[in-house]
Amino acid sequence: MGMTTAQIADLASINPATGEVIGTVRLQSRDDYEQAVARAEAVGASWRRLPAPKRGEVVRLIANAMRDRIEPLGELVTRETGKIRAEGIGEIQECIDIGDFAVGLSRQLYGITTHSERPDHRLYEQWHPLGTIGVITAFNFPAAVWAWNAMLAAVCGNAVLWKPSLLAPLTAVAMTGVVHDVLREQDVFKPSNGADPCDLFPLVIGTDETIGQAMTADRRLPLVSATGSCAMGRTVGGTVAGRLGRTLLELGGNNAVIVMSDADLDLALRAILFGAVGTAGQRCTSTRRVLCHRDVIDTFAARLVEAYRSVRIGDPLDQATLMGPLINELAVQNMCNALGEIANEGLDVLCGGLEGIARHADEPGFFVEPTLVRVPAGADPRIAWQETFAPILYLYEFADLDEAIERHNAVDQGLSSAIFTSSMHAAERFLSADGSDCGIANVNLGTSGAEIGGAFGGEKDTGGGRESGSDAWRAYMRRQTCTINWGSDLPLAQGIQFES
Ligand code: NAD
User: Fold this and answer.
1) What is the average pLDDT across 345-374?
2) What's the mean pLDDT in 45-70?
3) Is the pLDDT of residue 100 over 80?
4) Cβ(417)–Cβ(436) under 8 Å?
5) Catalytic-residue membership of 41
6) pLDDT tens-digit map of 21-40
7) Is the pLDDT of residue 193 over 90?
């Protein structure tokens, strides 16, 4: 069922630092989607027959092309999302890193061999491509999340259909353009069936109703990898599960740092500032709660306020800026709503707050001030259970580590976590089975800024998915257990006799 031409609209991408339109793209229709999947299926049939190390060679060319264009791509990320230039460039660096990782991985897609219980039999596992992978990405990492999925999925032998956030379509166009340029020029992969190699990486920019729903319902996509809010994950996860497909869900976080009384407070301060204020609090791993020992909370709160007041807010392309704008007016409104609830709950706003937002109201762009909220001892405000995608940090106090861990784990999400301490006992307790319940747990560094070498993702409402390094590649493949009888008898497993 296709859309009529009249339904096809243009989508403007807005620079959140200025409110200006930086470009427009055409929203794609259901027909465009159907064609993209059909073409991906056709070229995928050829791609999966190319030896994995050769697929790695193509990915190496893609990573090198991103290397050559790191500055303009990074600056586009900054223009489209408002994250500061260092983070925009850092995001493309992450794409390059995962590309390099995938190249090495292309020679390591190994399965185990084990011993058969039957004589003259061999038993082993191997991994095959899944087919065409659907990737849905969030606005806040408009390039890296796609690259995490696409580079691994590609060396694993899959085609990758990408539906980006409608808040960051130009980055998706630019990244796909780099990939398509490489695929047009390379001579490693020439599909035997005359298909276009570019069709391996289709980009489909469209609404959740047209493209999003088509993807979740489409049985030709054996895996849908979706990054975004917990609400999105519930919808996408539910629909894909309904057709017994697989999902890889990377959803919201509500990440906390525990600061013990023996912590290096200088270190904790720097890590928490970057974690809570960096990317204007718009990372899934942003620090949203600090649980501070009561012996040091007053000193630490005062130092945090001082640090918050020194944060330079402004043009994200200016090297001196530490915090850019929020993504759009709705994000500012969501922050105002949370601050309204904070006021209703009688919490103490130490800096920022509604006044901080008012101070930027007359400027173009969607600027706010980072906000620090002190929660009275014993209080448990419901607003702090939510992931408000903005720079609001809640400061709690605790008396002992048991209390801190209980409070730490009480929320619904389980993405990233950290403890600052010089006690081996406290650090190990935090990392133990009775400690942090998150997918990521750090000691003496913050919650934000993961490396690509480890598996990335979280538990509970964060969705349970793992992407990026380690053995996350397995999500993009299907496992096959193979038994080979090289003898002349037919022994059955478990010693079953079945003779006529
Ligand atoms: P969002 O949930 O609004 O949108 C994410 C993506 O899902 C977008 O592409 C959107 O168009 C799509 N989408 C939404 N509903 C859909 C549906 N019903 N069917 C198909 N697609 C649908 O999130 P956002 O505002 O873009 O990003 C912020 C959120 O993403 C935060 O919650 C953040 O924590 C989370 N996030 C998580 C990770 C992670 O790795 N865990 C990484 C980045 C962002």
Assistant:
1) 96
2) 98
3) yes
4) yes
5) no
6) 999 999 999 999 999 999 99
7) no
Catalytic pick from 95, 230, 284, 351? Answer: 284
**Residues in contact with 177: Cβ distance below 8 Å, sequence separation at least 6, in sequence order:** none
Would you say the CB of residue 208 lies under 6 angstroms from ligand 1? yes
Which of 27, 140, 411 is the pocket-test mutation for ligand 1 (most atoms within 8 Å of CB)? 140
Alpha carbon nearest to ligand 1 atom 39, residue: 250
Please, what is the average pLDDT of the chain? 96
Give me the pLDDT at residue 8, please: 58
Write b or e for each residue in 459-471: b if 16 or more Cβ atoms lie within 10 A of its Cβ, otherwise e: bbbbbbbbbbbee
What does the pLDDT read at residue 96? 98
Q: Are the C-beta atoms of residues 168 and 13 closer than 8 Å to each other?
A: yes
390 lines ligand 1 (CB under 6 A): no
Residue 482 annotated to the active site: no
Task: Tell me if 212 CB under 6 Å of ligand 1.
Answer: yes
Nearest CA to ligand 1 atom 20: 212
Ligand 1 centroid, distance to 172 Cα (angstroms): 15
What is the structure's pLDDT at 170? 98
pLDDT tens per residue across span 302-315:
999 999 999 999 99
pLDDT at 138 over 60: yes
**Separation CA 80–CA 139 (nearest Å):** 9
